[in-house]
Amino acid sequence: MIKRDRLNLELQALERKIRLLLSQFKTLLSTNEALKNENLELKSLIQAKDNQINDFHNKIKISTIVDRITVGEKEVKEVKNKIDEHIKEIDKCINELSK
Hints:
The chain has one domain. Helix 1 packs antiparallel against helix 2 (73-98). It is built from two helices and no strands. Helix content is 94%, strand content 0%. It is mainly alpha-helical.
């Protein structure tokens, strides 16, 4: 009987440890899933920020080109306005593609 009682106690202790491990495993699975979702969101945010940076770089390049144009003041304003319109149209397209 003593061996049987000792085996029962060991079995109960083992069952408690298994339940604890299962509980910890479920918690870790949940945490892992939350971290995966956060990672995807952050990657998406980084991609959006990269797109914005590229847009700004393009705007700077265009502004530099416009600034280098040596024509009359009236023509410069017209060219700048046209380029601004094109940039706005491109931005709209990019926003639509990002959705």
